[in-house]
Structures are given as structure tokens and as C-alpha cells.
Amino acid sequence: MSGETLVAVDTNILICAEDAADPAKRQMAIAWLDHLWRKRIGRVSNQALNEFYVNVTRKIQPPMPQGDARAKVRRYAAWNPWQVDQATIETAWGLEANHRLHYWDSLMLAAAQHMGCAYVLSEDMGHNQRYGAVTVVNPFTQPIQWLYDL
């Protein structure tokens, strides 16, 4: 696979990289994200960043201080966050109807499609499921060596 293969990251993976509740999972999420940073192939949507902020400051234990969470969101801004627009919403509605997905998952996949991503890292959607040109990869079931081919 080419070094230009883009990978969108769902909120749950961003959160796992910060949540100390499951150290093994946290380390796997960090390894994936570090690789995406090094290769400069990671992408996110504004939706994912907003969900990340709310969840890490309110739902993980201990909660991340707001200033630290804001710094993380600002850092991920380097990944050119996708601004959800009407075209993205229309794509999400199509995915929702055609694949019987939850709307928020459909919106994540639609953003990935509009960003030109080949993959979405997500724990919440079926591993290896393909939605148009985007394939879901669960980084907690996919061997870590796979990411070095990207």
C-alpha cells in the first residue's frame, strides 16, 4: 500500500489512547496513532474531535483536564479535520439507510469518504466491513504489523 493511503480515526480510538482503564488497549491505540502521525496519513472529523473532548473531560476516570483536552484537539487539527457539510450529511443518510448503521457511525464513514480515506479505525463498527471505498479496521483485532504496510 502506498504512503498516501489515508486513515480516518473514530472517536473511540482517540479516547482509548487517553483512557487508563485498559492499559493494553491504550498502548495499542497509541501505537496506531503514533504510526499515523509519523506517516502523516491520519485524518479526523470535527465530529470526532468534539465527541473526544466531551468524553475525555467527562466520562473517563480520572477525567482529563479541559486545558489538556483542548491541547489534544488543537494537535489533531493538524490532521485537517473534516467540516461536516450538507453533502456529508446526505452521504451519511445514504449509508444509514443502505447499511442500517447508527447515524453517528454513518456520519463518521461519510466524512472518511469525503476526505478520501481508504480506512476508518474504529472499535464500534464491524472489522473489515466495507462501505463504498472505505474499509473499517478494528485496531484491537488487527495485528499491529499491518499498520507498517500503510
Provide a quick synopsis of the model.
By secondary structure, the chain is an alpha/beta fold. It is built from six helices and five strands; from the N terminus they run βααβααααβββ.
Provide the structure class: alpha/beta
Mass-distribution shape: globular
Instruction: Count the E strands.
Output: 5
Helical fraction: 40-55%
The CATH class designation is Alpha Beta
Task: Give the distance, in angstroms, between the N- and C-terminal Cα atoms.
Answer: 5 Å
Number of domains: 1
**CATH topology tier name:** Rossmann fold
Element pattern in H and E: EHHEHHHHEEE
The CATH architecture would be 3-Layer(aba) Sandwich
How many helices does DSSP assign? 6
Cross-sheet strand order for the largest sheet? 2-1-3-5-4
Low-confidence stretches: none
The CATH superfamily is 5'-nuclease
Radius of gyration: 15 Å
User: Approximately what portion of the residues adopt beta-strand conformation?
Assistant: 5-15%
The main pleated sheet reads as: 5 strands, mixed
Write down the overall mean pLDDT. 92
Structure in words:
This protein has 150 residues and is α/β, with parallel strands linked by helices. It has one domain (7-135): 3-Layer(aba) Sandwich (Rossmann fold), CATH 3.40.50. The chain is 49% helix and 9% strand. The chain contains 6 helices and 5 strands, in the order βααβααααβββ. The chain has helices at 11-16, 23-39, 46-58, 66-76, 86-99, 103-115, and strands spanning 7-9, 42-43, 119-121, 130-131, 134-137. It has a 5-stranded mixed β-sheet. A hairpin with a 2-residue loop joins β4 (130-131) and β5 (134-137). The longest helix is centred in the N-terminal third of the chain and has 17 residues, at 23-39. The termini are close together.
